[in-house]
Amino acid sequence: MITVLVFGQLKEQLNCPKLCVELDAIAPTNTLNNLLILLQQQYPEWADHLQNNVILSAVNQSIVSTEHLIADGDEVAFFPPVTGG
Amino acid sequence: MICVQTQDFDVAEQYALLSQGNSQDGAVVCFVGLVREFNQDHTVTGLHLEHYPAMTEKVLHAIVSAAKTRWELGKVHVIHRVGDLHLSDQIVFVGVTSPHREAAFAANQFIMDLLKQQAPFWKKELTTKGPRWVQAEAKDQKSALHW
């Protein structure tokens, strides 16, 4: 099971702060990119927001590329560029 | 000391904590970021700050650790507020001590520049035209790349 968290403006756009995804559902390989494709298939209304190329991805609280391989139990997060300080 | 909190912080108290019992350090540099009235062509009346708790502290610790590797530093305090803030409220505090001012100034700016580029905080401003999410600025990316 993968936990997916969403933050910032993206959380409002998707209207969903958190969801869980079975690792087996991500195909053909367990990359973040394939997770994004799966989410767009399951929630077509999210497609425009998830295809936004400024969206950043983190796995277990570290920024990674969408080619990153996800493992069971990972915490995945998607969010826009940060604006703190 | 790294802290993410909803409550305000006392700069005088932070300065005292940084400077006391620290006779080997001859420099203390403190930076405070405030909620400002105009941003990205909007009149701001307040803001809401959200963050990714598990990642925020991890990133801030990594930034402070990188600063300590790069410069000879004594104490480093980073405080960042989250939640609802009003105009002129304090948002962020970075205080560093060092034997020398050059290191203290540089390390403070390094920490702020990387915090703005890497720490997972997001600002939603309340403006006279309604709420809006602040967009990341290219100049902040450029400032961080400078290091």
**Class derived from helix and strand content of chain B:** alpha+beta
One letter per element, helices H and strands E, the order of chain A comes to: EHEHHEEE
The count of helical stretches of chain A stands at 3
Q: What does the main sheet of chain B amount to?
A: 5 strands, antiparallel
Radius of gyration of chain B (Å): 16 Å
What name does CATH use for the topology of chain A? Ubiquitin-like (UB roll)
Task: Give the fraction of residues assigned to helices of chain B.
Answer: 25-40%
Top-tier CATH class of chain A: Alpha Beta
CATH architecture of chain A: Roll
Summing up helix and strand content along with how strands pair, one would put the structural category of chain A as alpha+beta
Strand content of chain A: 15-25%
- Euclidean distance between termini CA atoms of chain B: 23 Å
Q: What value does the Rg of chain A take, in angstroms?
A: 12 Å
Mean pLDDT of chain A: 94
Strand content of chain B: 35-45%
Regarding quaternary structure, how should these chains be classified?
Answer: heterodimer
Number of strands of chain B: 9
Can you identify the CATH superfamily of chain A?
A: Beta-grasp domain
**Biggest chain pair interface:** A-B, 19 and 28 residues
SSE series of chain B: EHEEEHEEEHEEH
Poorly predicted runs of 5 or more residues of chain A: none
